[in-house]
Description:
This protein is α+β, with helices and mostly antiparallel strands. The protein has two domains: 4-65, Arc Repressor Mutant, subunit A; 77-160, Glutaredoxin. Helices cover 44% and strands 11% of the residues. The protein is built from seven helices and four strands. It has helices at residues 4-14, 26-37, 42-52, 56-65, 85-89, 92-103, 146-159, and strands spanning 77-82, 116-121, 133-135, 139-141. Strands 2-1-3-4 form a four-stranded mixed β-sheet, with helices on one face. The radius of gyration is 19 Å and the shape is elongated. [2Fe-2S] cluster binds at residues 82, 87, 123, 127. It comes from Paracidovorax wautersii. It catalyses: a quinone + NADH + 5 H(+)(in) = a quinol + NAD(+) + 4 H(+)(out). One of its GO terms (molecular function) is NADH dehydrogenase activity.
Amino acid sequence: MITDATKARFAREVAKYPAEQKQSAVMACLSIVQQEQGWVSADSEAVIAEYLGMPQIAVHEVTTFYNMYNQQPTGKYKLNVCTNLPCQLRDGQKALHHLEKKLGISMGETTADGLFTLQQCECLGACADAPVMLVNDRTMCSFMDNEKLDQLVDGLRQAEGPAPGRVGESA
């Protein structure tokens, strides 16, 4: 579950704080787990709590407070569409609905092939570029009209290559 290499990454983060404040690295440790595993399980929270010398519930409180931590497995591509008021005024809700139709899922769900999870999120701080979205908690996409949304999804699907049984696939 949590490898020695992961714990070495934890140690690098803990080293940034005074010894008596190592719990300050909790968010960094949660991010490391999520980067490596795609989500933060209760078991991972327990390992982090033990490593940092803090109650497991305190780690869980951080995990559940911030929406950037996935508490269940997500698709390979997590699409967070900002639906805060400025983005809504500039078609953020329409962007979310367009993606729901294109992907065949509702907000909060993952496609059957495990590629996409669609979520709404709070302000991403790019109101002038609305509607905006975040892909995999790292890549900001701006001015996401239907055409750009289609290009994004189609491009990510193409990057995956042909799925078994697709037309044109050689055996």
